[in-house]
Amino acid sequence: MFKKFVLLVVAATLSVVSMSSFADTKVRLETTMGDIVVELDSEHAPITTKNFLDYVNRGFYDGLTFHRVIPNFMIQGGGADDQLEFVQTSPAIKNEANNGLLNERGTIAMARTNVVDSATSQFFINVVDNKFLNYQSPQNYGYAVFGKVIEGMDVVDKIVAVKTQRVGGHQNVPVEPIYITKAEVIAE
What does the record give as EC number (predicted)? Predict the structure, then answer.
């Protein structure tokens, strides 16, 4: 009887520990236009969430900009400074776009090239539902959503409304740089 009780306590403890490892971490992006708080989904996007948190925890995003802003689409940041100099990143990660999360308004997803597994540090926040960015098939893989904005969507909407310009080969660059002054974990 005592052994069953001990096993039950151990099983319950492991369940709580297991559930807490999937607890949704919150990250605050302090920008020059206001704060944005995102809640990450490590259960559905563990590789992507870990990658993003690695960048956050080492201060990588601090001082970078939202360098691409497209109305009725998204805002993109996490890779360039105000001179559009792209910074050195960690190696690319596996694309988790087939995780069931959708590119809907307010979600945060990884930016990438046309190579499926090419995401590194850059991310974007959807300002509308972008169904065409969702996973559809191995040939049309999509973009990995790994969280959602839980505070500051009004800030996202202000950012997407700024005036943009073409700078060299880059389109949709804000005329006035929008900085990520600090990215930090605020709850785990």
Answer: 5.2.1.8
Q: pLDDT tens digit string along 114-169?
A: 999 999 999 999 999 999 999 999 999 999 999 999 999 999 999 999 999 999 99
106 within a domain of the structure (yes/no)? yes
Task: Tell whether 55 is covered by a domain.
Answer: yes
Burial of 119 (0-12, 13-18, 19+ CB in 10 A): buried
Full domain range(s) for residue 168:
23-187
68 located within any domain? yes
CATH of the domain at 144: 2.40.100.10
Element spanning 66, H or E: strand 66-70
CA distance 125 to 77: 9
